[in-house]
Amino acid sequence: TAIKSDFKPNPNLKLRQKIYTWEEVQKHCHRSDQWLVIDRKVYNITQWAKRHPGGIRVISHFAGEDATEAFVAFHLDPNFVRKFLKPLLIGELAPTEPSQDHGKNAVLVQDFQALRDRVESEGLLRARPLFFSLYLGHILLLEALALGLLWVWGTSWSITLLCSLMLATSQAQAGWLQHDYGHLSVCKKSGWNHKLHKFVIGHLKGASANWWNHRHFQHHAKPNIFRKDPDINSLHVFVLGDKQPVEVVITIDLAWSMSFYLRFFCCYYPFFGFFGSVALISFVRFLESHWFVWVTQMSHLPMEMDHERQQDWLTMQLSATCNIEQSTFNDWFSGHLNFQIEHHLFPTMPRHNYHLVAPLVRALCEKHGVPYQVKTLQKGMTDVVRSLKKSGDLWLDAYLHK
């Protein structure tokens, strides 16, 4: 149930700017006219959205809505970011308006904020540098061992297969590590996270950091929501823009990506030649892509998919995610994304702390009757197949009876 707020407007603000109702704010949800609310302050982001560091789409998904919970979840230092919002401020909600829009459960929202305050006070958003240093080390070790096998034992079919398995493993693990840096969950400063993200996803994997950011933050902002989560929409291969800053960024990403392929062919061309090296990286990508898809989709694909329902942060994330049981193997195999619920609720939390916050999240869900699902690894993968079969059957039925 929505609770009326006893918030008192700033008298100085009232002289300069307007007081709005939710009905007025919700009218400004179009591409050429975008307002949003953060902590009861109303901002006009229409022009600034194009310069949003996280991309125009992720912030536009909250046009006409309360974006407070997403704003806090995505930014390492919300107070610092608020400085950049000041020129966009046009007013505040009327004191008679609730703090939450669309009749959201205000008690649940307040309880989740209390949980976040506890998480911050207990230091669960602080990373352990040694953990990530060792993690990077084991990726580089796998790469070195794969190359060493060929130097010592040659290029027989069995050795080449073993080399491919080791490279696929290093690629999968590098995928989880770039995910950590992309979510700003390793370093205290965003700048260092961005630099290391480009190195890991670009030089170690041959992909684009900005392409990943553009898509992945939309997924976290609106998971399993049609037309807003790119993970359930058709894939756009190229994310290009006509502005100079975007062109520069794409050029930098291309350079990082090319450094991966240059390094790969320098290492493996002497053993396999050009076409053999292409076949090797293609096979490694084939193995790694299956690993990636099964891990990421078993926590999302079987869950609810629907159009925008304007839910609070916790309810929205829990309806679209589930966990896989914890074990040493599952943690390593999935890059700790077996704690998908905790990751979605606290996207900047370092992964080694997910298991510490999980009991607190579960208790909060039980209090408010929000389903908290945990599956075995086998059931998670089986549910993916069942979900695909169900979708296929529905499509076939619609096709045959159209």
TrEMBL record:
<dbReference type="Pfam" id="PF00487">
    <property type="entry name" value="FA_desaturase"/>
</dbReference>
<keyword id="KW-0276">Fatty acid metabolism</keyword>
<keyword id="KW-1133">Transmembrane helix</keyword>
<keyword id="KW-0472">Membrane</keyword>
<keyword id="KW-0444">Lipid biosynthesis</keyword>
<feature type="domain" description="Cytochrome b5 heme-binding">
    <location>
        <begin position="17"/>
        <end position="94"/>
    </location>
</feature>
<keyword id="KW-0560">Oxidoreductase</keyword>
<feature type="transmembrane region" description="Helical">
    <location>
        <begin position="130"/>
        <end position="153"/>
    </location>
</feature>
<dbReference type="GO" id="GO:0016717">
    <property type="term" value="F:oxidoreductase activity, acting on paired donors, with oxidation of a pair of donors resulting in the reduction of molecular oxygen to two molecules of water"/>
</dbReference>
<dbReference type="InterPro" id="IPR036400">
    <property type="entry name" value="Cyt_B5-like_heme/steroid_sf"/>
</dbReference>
<keyword id="KW-0275">Fatty acid biosynthesis</keyword>
<keyword id="KW-0812">Transmembrane</keyword>
<dbReference type="GO" id="GO:0006636">
    <property type="term" value="P:unsaturated fatty acid biosynthetic process"/>
</dbReference>
<dbReference type="InterPro" id="IPR001199">
    <property type="entry name" value="Cyt_B5-like_heme/steroid-bd"/>
</dbReference>
<dbReference type="GO" id="GO:0016020">
    <property type="term" value="C:membrane"/>
</dbReference>
<dbReference type="Pfam" id="PF00173">
    <property type="entry name" value="Cyt-b5"/>
</dbReference>
<feature type="transmembrane region" description="Helical">
    <location>
        <begin position="260"/>
        <end position="284"/>
    </location>
</feature>
<comment type="pathway">
    <text>Lipid metabolism; polyunsaturated fatty acid biosynthesis.</text>
</comment>
<comment type="similarity">
    <text>Belongs to the fatty acid desaturase type 1 family.</text>
</comment>
<keyword id="KW-0443">Lipid metabolism</keyword>
<dbReference type="InterPro" id="IPR012171">
    <property type="entry name" value="Fatty_acid_desaturase"/>
</dbReference>
<protein>
    <recommendedName>
        <fullName>Cytochrome b5 heme-binding domain-containing protein</fullName>
    </recommendedName>
</protein>
<dbReference type="InterPro" id="IPR005804">
    <property type="entry name" value="FA_desaturase_dom"/>
</dbReference>
